[in-house]
Amino acid sequence: MKLAYAEYGAGEPLVLIMGLGAPGAAWEPHTAAWSRSFRCLVADNRGAGGSAAPPGPYTTADMADDYAELIGGLGLGPVRVAGISMGGAIAQELALHHPELVSRLVLVASWARCDAHTAVIFQTLPRIWDRPEAATALLQWLIWTPAWFAAHRHELLAERTAPDRMSCAAFSAQAAACVSHDALDRLGGIRVPTLVTAGDADLFVPPRLSREIAESIPGAILEVFSGAGHTHHWEQLDRFNAIVEEWLR
After folding, report:
1. Cα(207)–Cα(238) distance, rounded to whole angstroms?
2. In this structure, are strands 38-43 and 221-225 parallel, antiparallel, or unpaired?
3. Per residue in 34-49, pLDDT tens?
4. CB atoms within 10 A of CB 18
């Protein structure tokens, strides 16, 4: 299916894949920096933003095919690809199913196969998604560290009543893709340079799952952000942007 997308900057193409429940626009703190060096392609995953929301459940392989259609339709490839959380799972499948389209990978706070802890989170969130304040509060507790939350309390509280939320059906369909993703035994087939990043205080996707990815992809490098959580890419924004930009050059 066709994805809604936007482009920022010029240079070699960089495809950015966002995580569960968020539109591609959430990449803005990163594209503001990376668009000076790359042509950043930011899409809304199926079910999010301006993209269609077909009936679920979705799979990460389905969503990888969406990105393959986007990249091929633009006459691009191989391209650099970065994915956050669920986006990292989609990026794994893109590199495995469409290796001719991927030249380098960045996998942020992701997993190759859910453990029991993470699966329960993905199964629970859809059950309360129809209660916006409760669902967003739980998600914020999982992805931000206490220090970040304390420093941005009013901003985060305001997000709990934001009107532009994904529908319950679409969120559930994406969450199902998170639970069913299982590429662990296939990651040895990824043959492109890969950077894996993790926050050592991540409650949502524990850093051991990122370590598992790095240990399974030949030659992959793991960069750990000390004192940061699932959203280490925001909590330590300048460091993250600089490390990823250097890696992608």
Report:
1. 21
2. unpaired
3. 999 999 999 999 999 9
4. 24
Please give the torsion angle defined by the CA atoms of residues 67, 72, 78 and 79, in that order, rounded to the nearest 10 degrees.
-50
Return d(Cα 90, Cα 181) in angstroms, integer.
Answer: 9
| Sheet bearing 38-43, strands edge to edge | 5-8, 38-43, 12-17, 79-84, 102-108, 194-199, 221-225
CA-based Rg of the chain, rounded to a whole angstrom? 17
CATH of the domain at 139: 3.40.50.1820
Predicted pLDDT of residue 163: 63
Tell which phi-psi region holds residue 167, choosing left (phi > 0), alpha (psi between -120 and 50) or beta.
Answer: beta
Kindly state the helix (H) or strand (E) to which residue 6 belongs, with its residue range.
strand 5-8
Would you give the end-to-end CA distance of the chain in angstroms? 30
Nearest CA to 90 out of 116, 71, 62 is that of 62
Q: Do 200 and 224 meet the contact criterion of CB atoms below 8 Å apart?
A: yes
Tell me the whole-structure pTM to 2 decimals. 0.97
Which amino acid, one-letter code, is at 175? A
Q: Hey, is 132 helix, strand or coil?
A: helix
Residues spanned by the domain of 93: 5-248
Residue 162: predicted pLDDT: 64
Query: ∠165-17-73 over CA atoms, to 5°?
Result: 110
Structural domain count of the chain: 1
